[in-house]
Amino acid sequence: MKQDIKHHDDLNMGKKILNVGLIGAGSSATNIATTIDTIEDLKLVAVCDANQAVAQKLALDHGVDTVVTEYTDLDEREDIDFVVISLPHGLHKEVAMHFLDKGKHVLVEKPIATNVEDAKAMIALAREKELKLGVHFQNRFIDAVQEAKSIIDAGTIGKILQVAVSVMWWRDESYYKDSSWRGTWQMEGGGSLINQAIHPVDQMLYLVGNVKRVFGLWGHLVHDIEVDDNTCAAFQFENGAFGTIQTSTATKAAFPAKVTIFGSDGGLEIEGNILTVFNADGTNDKTDFAANEGGQVASATDPKKFSPVAHGRLMNDFADAIRENREPLVSGEEGLRSIELVRAIYESNGEKIIDLG
What we know:
Oligomer: single chain
């Protein structure tokens, strides 16, 4: 079913203002704070980071008075409606569970957690507390993906036969050396697959459906890290279609990320926010939506690139889910889908086929 996303571009006049606490003050958190500044009915009221200087700078840049170094210091802030968690992946469960237990709605950066068990625990607690749990998969909200969803749902490209995801990117040594949590199983939960490729994986699952079984390979072929800087996998979807994925953070040529879907009557390809539709008569139609969304939505070489429009759409939807007492479009359950596939690829590791169904 197509998610009604584009209406969130409208001005949000007359809505209740929701106060936000931001847990983390790194580059992703900075993007989130920048996005909140553009939304009239959201207000960033507190910033938390173990590095006080970094937290203070972000707070100063965005007009926030409250800065803390321990997230528990925000427990008594009854005016905070929800928190956004922008921390190393390995901390997502601990912090999310804490705030859910304290009665706060939680929006967590991707991936939802480093493993399936932690993700399910977060979802269960949110249900128990009747709170909203969302995952920051903002790239579902870009126009190229939404248009692709409409085309697939309309049957324009026929029966989906195969899908190919390619995220062959570059991250230099400083990317890992300057952040002790990256490149580790405990805190990052993986490498190129769980971090860089997780957005295209989520797009693929959103557009095509869940995976039934998978065979995967992973390794660190260039970088001196514990986790993968290269992966590949072959799988079958529940609807019978076949799929492949290849990921890397070790290709200096830094190819653009692509999701390609092949149907019996045509096909389509998403490259960033560019959508190309391949017609059965051999023609194709290419639309570049980037100009509508603040430019590039992701970068093969620069992890700080982001789409303010896509971020805003997701943030608006999560806030509206709280106001309307409904599930956010990217709920905890939706975030679980990608981590299930990622962990299955890691578990397969060239040795066995993993059944997900």
